[in-house]
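Please produce the structure of this protein holding uridine-diphosphate-N-acetylglucosamine.
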Amino acid sequence: MDKFLVTGGTPLVGTIRVSGAKNAALPCMAAAILTEDEVILENIPHVRDIDTERRLLASMGGEVDIFDDGTNRTTRICCATLSDPVAKYEIVKTMRASSLVLGPLVARTGLARVAMPGGCAIGGRPIDLHLKGLEKMGAVITQEHGYIEARAERLLGAHIVFDKITVTGTEDLLMAAVLAEGETLMENCAREPEVVDLAGLLNAMGAKIEGAGTPTIRVRGVARLKGARHRICPDRIEAGTFLIAGAITGGDLTVAGCNPRHLGAVMSKLEETGARVDILRPDAVRVQAEGALKAADVSTEEYPGFPTDMQAQYMALATQADGVSMVKENIFENRFMHVQELVRMGANIKVDGRVATVRGRTPLSAASVMCSDLRASASLVLAALVADGQSVLDRVYHMDRGYERIEEKLRGVGAKIARVSHVPAGVAEEAYA
Ligand code: UD1
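Below is the modeled complex.
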C-alpha cells in the first residue's frame, strides 16, 4: 500500500496546474448511457474514481476508451448496447457516485439495478431523494439483496421539489428527465458548477434543459439523444486545495488552469485569513502569504457557499492561523475524521457535534498518520507540508481517488513529498527530495 513521505517547512513557489473535475467527469460519463452514439469527454482527470466508472460502464456493455497525449486526457464512450444494466457491488462499493447511473439507465433501458453505494465514510449518505424523484417520474422502485431496482417503460415528466439540496441527486434526476415524456420541473436543485457542466453536455446531446446553476431547472423531455464532444470543467476542489497549500506554507503560488469564478468562497476566506489572492487571468489565481495568518470562522454550505469538500483542508490552515477559528460542517455529519490525526501532529482542536474549534497557531510536528477519506487525506498533506520533520501518510489510496499525481504536482513547486510502497528504515530526506 503506497504511502507519502512529506518533509515540512518549504514555502511552495511557482505555478501548479489543476486537472479536470472528477465530480463533473463522473456524471458526464454516466450521461453517455443516454445515447447509442459516441460521447467524447476531454480533460478527464487521471484519478481512481474515473477508472472505477470506466469499469462500471464497461461491465454494463459500454465501450470506454481513454486516450492520454500528455496534456489532455480524453475518453470516448459508446453505450450502443447495454447488455447488462446492472451496477455491481464489486465495482461500486468504493464509489458512491455509482448512484449516478440509476437515472440514465432507467431512462434509456427501462430497467436499472444498482448496488447501494459505498464511497467516503462520511455520514450515512442515503440516496432516498434520487429514488423519490424517480418514483415521481413513474418508476417502480424495489430494493433487495443490497441492490436497488428501478423499472419504467418510459419515465414521465414530473414536478420534483428536493427536500434537501443534493448534488448527485440533482444530476441523477436531470439525466432521467431528459428522456422522459413531457416536462419536468425540478426545484431546490443544487447549483454546483458540476451540475452546470453536466447540463452543458446534455444540451449538446440534444436535451432541452433550462436553469442549470439556479435552484429551478426545467427540462423538456426528448425521444432520443445524440453523441457529443464536451470539455470537463477544472476541478475547483483541487484548485482550492492548492490555494491553501500556497497560503499555509507562506508561499507564492499560482494555480493555473482553474476557473476563478468557481472559487469565490474559498478565495474570500483566504483573504480573511490575511493571505493575498489575485486573479491573474481568467484561468489563474495567485496566492501569497508573507506574514502571520489570522483565524477566521467557516461554515460549509451548498454552492456558492464554502464547500464541504474544502473543510478538512481549511482546518489544516486554521491550525496555523493566530486565534480561534470555528469550523462548522453543515452538509455531512461525521466529517471530522481528519481532526484526530491533526491533533496527533500537535493541533489544538475540539469537536462538539458539527462544530470544531481550532486554536492556533500551534506548531505541528511530523508524525505517522492515516488517511481516512479523500479530503481528509488532503488536509493531512497540507499539515505535513508545514510540520517540523518527516511525516508518513498511510493509505494514500484515498487521495488517489480524487487527486491526480498530487505528489508530482506539489514537488514541482518545491514540496518535499515522495510516494513510496514501504518506508525505508532511517530514510534520509535527500533520498527522496
Ligand atoms: C457530492 C460530491 C461530494 C460533495 C457533496 C456535497 C460528487 C460525486 N460528490 O456528493 O464530493 O462532498 O456533493 O457538496 O459530486 N442526502 C440525502 N438524501 C439523498 C441525497 C443526499 O439525505 O438522497 C443528503 C446527504 O446525506 C448530505 C446532503 O444531502 O447530508 C448533501 O449530499 P449530496 O449533495 O447528495 O452529496 P453527493 O451528491 O453524494
